[in-house]
Amino acid sequence: MAPAMAEASSGQRGRGVLIVLTVVAAPVALGFETLLRWLLMPEDFDVLRQFLRPTLTPVAWGLVIACAIGGFVGLLLHRRAVARAMARVPPGADASEVASRARVGAFMLGASVPQVPAILATFTFMFGASLLPVLVSIGVVTVFVVVLAVLTRRQR
């Protein structure tokens, strides 16, 4: 394989790994938070969690809505960021590498918008919120990030 082709293949593989890691970020954060809480928090912490549950569970449900809104905003940002990057390519330049980088950058931008409230939802669970709204937040954000990943891969 020619060095340029090997480099391009390696770059695409790296971008693919980055996309996969972004897709699994929110579920991994929930698992990591749960493991840390289980290993490091004192047993008395569960008393505090039970006390805060009625207050934090509605907050967690609100974060589900924030994840959904953030997902739609992320889709819009993705589309606009790719279009803006492609509009800046000078005439006659090799647009394929610019387009590839633009798509991955737009993916990262678009995916981060719904992931912020999802990560906040995992914190509400750590401090006592019910697990159900947190799982719904994780599910919503994962769906949006997968949709963004598919759009990113399909635009090649």
Distance between the termini: 21 Å
* Mean model confidence by pLDDT: 86
Number of domains: 1
Main beta-sheet annotation: none
Order of helices and strands: HHHHH
- Helical stretch count? 5
Radius of gyration: 19 Å
Low-confidence stretches: 1-7
Dominant shape:
elongated
How many strands appear in the DSSP assignment?
0
Q: Report the β-strand fraction as a percent range.
A: under 5%
**Derived structural class:** mainly alpha
**Oligomer category:** single chain
What is the helix fraction of residues, given as a range? over 70%
Characterise the protein shown here.
Helix content is 87%, strand content 0%. By secondary structure, the protein is mostly helical. The protein has one domain (3-154). The longest helix has 43 residues, at 45-87.
List keywords for this structure.
disordered N terminus; elongated; 156 residues; mainly alpha; 0% strand; 5 helices
List the helices and strands and how they pair.
Layout: H1 3-23, H2 25-40, H3 45-87, H4 95-126, H5 131-154
Helix pairs in contact: 1-4, 1-5, 2-4, 3-4, 3-5, 4-5
Care to give the gist of this entry?
The protein has 156 residues and is an all-alpha fold. The chain has helices spanning 3-23, 25-40, 45-87, 95-126, 131-154. The chain is built from five helices and no strands.
